[in-house]
Amino acid sequence: MLIPYDFLGKVFVVIAIIVITGILLALLLGAYSYKKHKILFPNFILFMLYLFYGPAKLICRVFFINDIIVDEILVEVRNAVMIDKFKKTKDKRVIFLPQCMRHPNCKARCDPIKGYECKMCGLCDINKIHEAASEHNFEVYVIPGGSFVKKIIKTQRPKSCIGVACYPELTESMQGASPFMVVQGVTLIQDGCFDTKVNVDDVIRKMEECDV
């Protein structure tokens, strides 16, 4: 039996064109939604950009666009999609902070389940977030990595969370956590793997949205 390579090649080209067109459309809709704060076809955007995350970033680079926009779109669209449910969740609310926000002289010990236990020494912004969280009924977890999020979800069963991280990390973690709870993301203003920073006021405003 002869394999119809000619036909298969044409089918592949058609599929590739459809996929690329879909990615471009999702990027355009996402960019418009992100800039105008008016979300259009959010489920389509999330589906296409998560499914074709790598190709979407490649397309951005081909057109000399900073590929971080893919992550920005995914985080902001996810925030918009879940904000109403987030506001309505009144208990079992948590905040996940990356351990890289800790001060270089941090003396906190790392619990094998809950992550770093803040000593409230005031050397970094984690202390300020802890203080605000106690006022707004949020529990704070300072985590060394994604495996700790899974442990906390399994043992504590939170209903909603605010995640703080760089855009690529938020993209991945929000996608992973969203089937289990309502998620919101706040990005770091100074990223890297050491002495990172977040706008504390942005985190507090996110908490305050639940008080409305």
Give a structural overview:
This protein is of the alpha/beta class. It folds into two domains: 5-81, no CATH class; 89-211, Rossmann fold. Helix content is 54%, strand content 16%. It contains eight helices and seven strands; from the N terminus they run ααααβββαβαβαββα. The chain has a five-stranded mixed beta sheet with strand order 4-1-5-6-7, with helices on both faces. Strands 2-3 form a two-stranded antiparallel ribbon. β5 (160-165), α7 and β6 form a beta-alpha-beta unit. The longest helix is centred in the N-terminal third of the chain and has 32 residues, at 5-36.
List keywords for this structure.
about 210 residues, alpha/beta, Rossmann fold, 5-stranded mixed β-sheet, two-stranded antiparallel sheet, elongated
Structure at a glance:
The chain is built from 8 helices and 7 strands, in the order H-H-H-H-E-E-E-H-E-H-E-H-E-E-H. It has 212 residues and is α/β, with parallel strands linked by helices.
Mean pLDDT: 90
Q: Quick one: how many beta strands?
A: 7
CATH fold-level label of the largest domain:
Rossmann fold
- Categorize the overall geometry: elongated
Roughly what percent helix? 40-55%
Strand arrangement across the biggest beta sheet: 4-1-5-6-7
Question: What is the topology?
Answer:
Blueprint lengths: L4 H32 L5 H10 L1 H10 L5 H21 L4 E6 L11 E2 L3 E2 L9 H10 L2 E6 L2 H11 L3 E6 L1 H11 L4 E9 L6 E2 L1 H9 L4
Helix pairs in contact: 1-2, 1-4, 2-4, 4-7, 5-8
